[in-house]
Specification:
single chain, alpha/beta
Length: 292
């Protein structure tokens, strides 16, 4: 259960890398040949989750961790995931998943983030290869390639059904049962959750049957980030992230869907300022800027 805040500590890039490599509770995402240490726990309809190999009767979820930059493109780590009710492809609001793209870090101090990024992608690709796939099935990888830039899609389920409203009593695979929201301020309550006007009626319809699952995201001072600050503090930020890895087979659509599921993230460096232009917001009737 992540607390609302942690005790901040002074971390250097070297100490962050050492922690990622050596501390218990996960594996550094760029560690060579991680595939030797993992297997899938077959969860049936709830999906399959990557676990530590030979974990016995109670296999442990395999957590991978690293340092990445959150891309400014395809940023959907907003309080409503940029849900559009008029878009039929978005489905139900209750099923919305927040998402963002993780890229190689561009911070010189954390140079290992960019140097190790290809090895991270190789490990994720190998994880996906553990699932036998029929030829007619379409594969949805966590690794995306857009205009030659590769990235990792990180997801987080925004809602979870109240326990009394679940159709079964089993914990969902890759769900949010690993932490509690008890004790958080009203800023994190579903009744005050900040969404766009077009989503407010949809949110109101979920109040009695669902709970909200805030991002387990911490700022530079190790305080839980407010939902109203998700975009300003996360978009473009350098982060330490811990994630699980899941697979779902959708037989009706003949799709194999892989997901990197957020477990926790901490901001290491604030987003860089967006470049400004002297031509922005100028008065056109004032004449050309470059007039001699």
């Amino acid at each position: 259960m992540p607390p609302e805040s942690k005790s901040p500590s002074t971390s250097t890039p070297a100490s962050v890398l050492q922690k990622l490599r050596r501390s218990p509770g996960g594996s550094y995402a760029a560690t060579p040949k991680l595939i030797r240490h993992v297997e899938y726990f077959i969860g049936g309809q709830d999906g399959n989750i990557l676990v530590t190999k030979r974990g016995g009767l109670q296999p442990a979820e395999f957590i991978i961790r690293g340092v990445f930059e959150i891309s400014r493109n395809d940023f959907n780590f907003t309080p409503d995931g940029n849900f559009n009710p008029s878009n039929v492809f978005h489905g139900r609001f209750a099923d919305i998943k927040l998402s963002c793209q993780l890229t190689a870090g561009r911070n010189d101090a954390f140079r290992f983030s960019s140097e190790d990024f290809p090895d991270v992608l190789d490990n994720l690709t190998h994880f996906e290869g553990l699932i036998p796939r029929a030829r007619e099935y379409e594969k949805f990888s966590v690794v995306h390639n857009s205009l030659g830039q590769r990235s990792i899609k990180l997801t987080h389920s925004l809602f979870e059904a109240n326990k009394g409203d679940r159709q079964d009593t089993a914990n969902p695979v890759c769900g949010n049962d690993n932490y509690s929201t008890n004790g958080l301020s009203s800023d994190f309550d579903i009744t005050s959750w900040p969404v766009a006007d077009q989503c407010k009626s949809h949110l109101q319809g979920l109040v009695s049957t669902y709970i909200i699952c805030p991002l387990p995201a911490y700022d530079l001072d190790h305080n839980l980030i407010l939902p109203s600050e998700y975009e300003s503090k996360l978009k473009g930020a350098l982060i330490e992230v811990h994630m699980a890895f899941c697979h779902h087979r959708v037989k009706s659509a003949k799709r194999d869907i892989f997901s990197a599921v957020l477990q926790e993230l901490t901001v290491l460096s604030l987003p860089a300022a967006v470049p400004s232009s002297p031509f922005k917001r100028r008065h056109l009737n004032a004449g050309p800027l470059n007039a001699s």
